Amino acid sequence: MSSFRFKQFEIIQDDNAMKVGTDSMVLGSFINGHGRKRGLDIGSGTGVLSLMVTQGNDDIKFDAVELDELSATECALNFKNSPWSDRLKVHQGNFLEFESEERYDLIISNPPYYQSTLLNQDSRKANARHEQSLPMREFILKSRKLLSDDGEFWFIVPAEDEQVWKKQCTSANLHLVEKIAIHGKEGGDIKRIIFVFCNHKSILEESSFSVRKKSNEYSEEYKELTRDFHFNEL
């Protein structure tokens, strides 16, 4: 059995198209869910992001939407096995067809963002990784429709796609309130960008973060960021 053990829950990922990785660890650790009541996890995969945020919030309830049937089944199992099973629900299907009377004050996603790279030969991995399964503009517009007036929309994208995501979100009348630049190594290139958008203008907060030292060991800031989640000390 393929699994990833956290301090307070475990992720089974035998059948998942996308395993737990650094993007999920960093995004899930950064997301500020304090005070939020209703969460939506788009393209939930294993359910790791929902679980990480729920661990730090005693009140939030999550709807998770996952296109891939096997991944959604595994996500439901991970939710059921967690200490917060009564606050987590997975919906299997296309996010663009997802209907809810709820407006969510926290929307999170590690979206399928590859646009120009060759499609993976594994169709399930291709859907999990490539924009063809969830077109960018439609994804953004649908997310904005479901976002509450005071809600926040958190997601992570490759650094080279920063401008196109900003442009599309701005054209959808979303406002950038926080940007976190993720370096693979200290002093190295920016690999990922975490964006936080909302429905109202605010002073933009910008910061940067390095996953590893130049020696390739995990950086102290990464250890501190993920301390509440990693089962084994890094």
SSE layout and pairings?
Layout lengths: L2 E3 L4 E3 L9 H9 L7 E5 L5 H8 L5 E6 L2 H13 L6 E5 L11 E6 L13 H7 L6 H11 E12 L3 H10 L3 E11 L4 E9 L6 E8 L7 H6 L9
Parallel strand pairs: 3-4, 3-6, 4-5, 6-7, 8-10
Antiparallel strand pairs: 1-2, 7-9, 8-9
Helix pairs in contact: 1-2
Explain this structure to me?
It is a single chain. This protein has one domain (3-225): Vaccinia Virus protein VP39 (Rossmann fold, 3-Layer(aba) Sandwich), CATH 3.40.50. Helices cover 27% and strands 29% of the residues. The protein contains seven helices and ten strands. It has helices spanning 22-30, 48-55, 69-81, 123-129, 136-146, 162-171, 220-225, and strands at 3-5, 10-12, 38-42, 61-66, 88-92, 104-109, 147-158, 175-185, 190-198, 205-212. Helix 3 (69-81) links the parallel strand 4 and strand 5 (88-92). Helix 1 runs parallel beside helix 2 (48-55). Mean pLDDT is 90; it is low at 114-124 and 126-131.
Keywords:
two-stranded antiparallel sheet, Rossmann fold, single chain, globular, 234 residues, eight-stranded mixed beta sheet
